[in-house]
Amino acid sequence: MDRLSNTVRPYAWGSTTLIPELLGVAPTGEPQAEMWMGAHPGAPSGTGRGSLSDIIDTDPARELGRPALEAFGPRLPFLLKLLAAGAPLSLQVHPDRSQAQAGFAAEEAAGIPLDAPHRNYRDDNHKPELVCALTPFDGLCGFRPPVETADFIAALDVDSLKPYVDLLHAHPEEAALREVLTAVLSADPEKTAHTVAEAAAAAERLGGPYAPFAAIAHHFPGDPGVIAAMLLNHVRLQPGEALFLGAGVPHAYLGGLAVEIMANSDNVLRCGLTPKHVDVPELLRVVRFEAGDPGVLRPEAAPSGEELYDTPIDEFRLSRFVRPQGAAPVDLTLATPQILLATEGRPKAGELTLAPGESAFVPAGEKVELTGMGTVFRATVAV
């Protein structure tokens, strides 16, 4: 078992305080957006034996175990993160596996460099993800029913939004959502900026359910993503609650601290709230134009004390242990690789004491027992 040293990514949207508060260290004044735990080539975790990616490359059968190796090949198929949003992330969707494979192959054939700003597909994998709140956590997830959105937008009383209201009322669900999102992202930028400014002022005045969209507009004045965001469900997760984001589901994280786990991929198609490339035709091909409840997940408890966040994904499985004083030891030994992350207390994994924000990698088949008081998230694969 290896204690991990992890890279913190300083993306501009990151909170300056949330990760330092969890770690019990002084803020630097700079944004600290994501702490990565895993073997992603962009920032693999370090160990006393070298980087986690090098350890797995040297002996994948020993580190990953036969079930994971046969299912996913010689790589850790998930990435675990602490995510600390101090400002909205880009509005985005992820492709399914077949879309990613086709898109990656097409861009490779076209000779587009992997690091090109206009490249959509950095790899050939899908990127489902699960985010679990550690503090109250705000996000947008999936489309609202078009009629509800029409009433929501109509209440802003902005003349240039009225054609969108009419479209949302006049068409079947899928067509309405597709036509409005297409119109929003294809509109004249100058006119859109004026519409966004009017809508933001109205949202500020109305407050309540409109307040999140006024805040988004404050961070991204004039961005068409502000109007696109109004098509989506606003969700506030309480600590311990989670959201699963499958392929084609538009989403954005707005603020708070969370544990996030995802399949190892960098494939993102953006809808707005970003200065980065937005490929509207490809985005519209990938988005699933279906309205529905965002589906807040709450963990399912087992007799062992493990609480599982159930998702339909094989690449990752996330659970947690919330251990009171005097809790009995729990055997965590699995035939698959694990990353353990403490978020409260000072629990022990084997001989390692884990303070909040500290993590450990457990190779497949290695015997490990969880003792002590605190909260520990366990990331592994579902095979």
From TrEMBL:
Enzyme class: isomerase
PROSITE patterns: PMI_I_1
This enzyme's EC code(s): 5.3.1.8
Name of one Pfam family that matches: PMI_typeI_cat
GO cellular component entries: cytosol
Catalytic activity: D-mannose 6-phosphate = D-fructose 6-phosphate
InterPro entries linked to this entry: Man6P_Isoase-1, Mannose-6-P_Isomerase, Pmannose_isomerase-type1_CS, PMI_typeI_cat, RmlC-like_jellyroll, RmlC_Cupin_sf
Manner of cofactor binding, per the entry note: Binds 1 zinc ion per subunit.
Residues in Phosphomannose isomerase type I catalytic domain copies: 3-145
Binding site for Zn(2+): 92, 94, 129, 251
A Gene Ontology molecular function term of the record: zinc ion binding
Residue numbers annotated as active site: 270
Any one biological process term the GO annotation gives: carbohydrate metabolic process
Swiss-Prot/TrEMBL keywords: Isomerase, Metal-binding, Zinc
Cofactors: Zn(2+)
Superkingdom as given in the UniProt entry: Bacteria
Family, per entry: Belongs to the mannose-6-phosphate isomerase type 1 family.
The protein, known as: mannose-6-phosphate isomerase
